[in-house]
Amino acid sequence: MNTDNNHPVNGAGLGLRREVIDDMAGLGNDQIDFMEVAPENWIGVGGAYGKKFRAFTERFDFVLHGLSLSIGGPSALDEELVKAIGRLMREHGIEFYSEHLSYCSDHGQLYDLLPIPFTEEAVHYTAERIKRVQDILGRQIAMENASYYTPAPGGEMQEIDFIKAVLDEADCCLLLDVNNIYVNSINHGYDAVEFMQALPAERIAYGHIAGHYNEADDLIIDTHGADVVENVWQLLDKTYQHFGVFPTLLERDFNIPPIAELLTEVDRIKQLQQKWTAAPVNKNEYNHG
What we know:
- By secondary structure, the chain is α/β, with parallel strands linked by helices.
- 36% of the residues lie in helices and 18% in strands.
- The protein has one domain (12-276): TIM Barrel (Alpha-Beta Barrel).
- The chain has eight helices and twelve strands.
């Protein structure tokens, strides 16, 4: 991979979704710097779609962002899934994998990302599972700060302290989701900029930005199904100002507009990155493992 600042990828990225894979076939490296897929959607895929995916991974740098590992869940860690992810990475030359700091299963998929209790016990439990994944893959992974709508019962820590404790104990990276910070700040009544600034700069591997749905004045649903709102763009701007520029990907999972419209949002990421490129940055200690 052609990377700098010790990040796994560079620049501004866009998620590759199967329903628009043909529409995205004409994209060039001057338009998109990297792409992201959910490994669960591509493990074992052959035939025409497998060939199309290979055509993309031969042209673009990729990262994987998992959906179903359930890192904080009560069920046993799905090591067979982790091994399959490792095979997919080797098959396509993909060097980085991330997941959500949440859980989504308990003897079966729950089809939602649920918050882990913010407790010391959960820190140790989750960190051990992350370390096991890193041992199997032979590399560091990243955990994404997740959106949630009600705290898990029994919490004894603040969300920011829980995140930092897990990252430190697991010695893993952070996937910094700017939209999730904004969503949680509205839903749980905290200052988004203050929360962002408390995250560990040295752990940031790359970032996400996305749209959401305003259910009420005090309830935002993280949908990835709308344009990024101005408040989130402003938070990304302040995030680059504080940490320096890091690779950032636009997530759009449904209600996907024409590719030209998506590219206008990717271009806005690039504009903000260019704005802060000359700003002093904290040295990121990302380790390829």
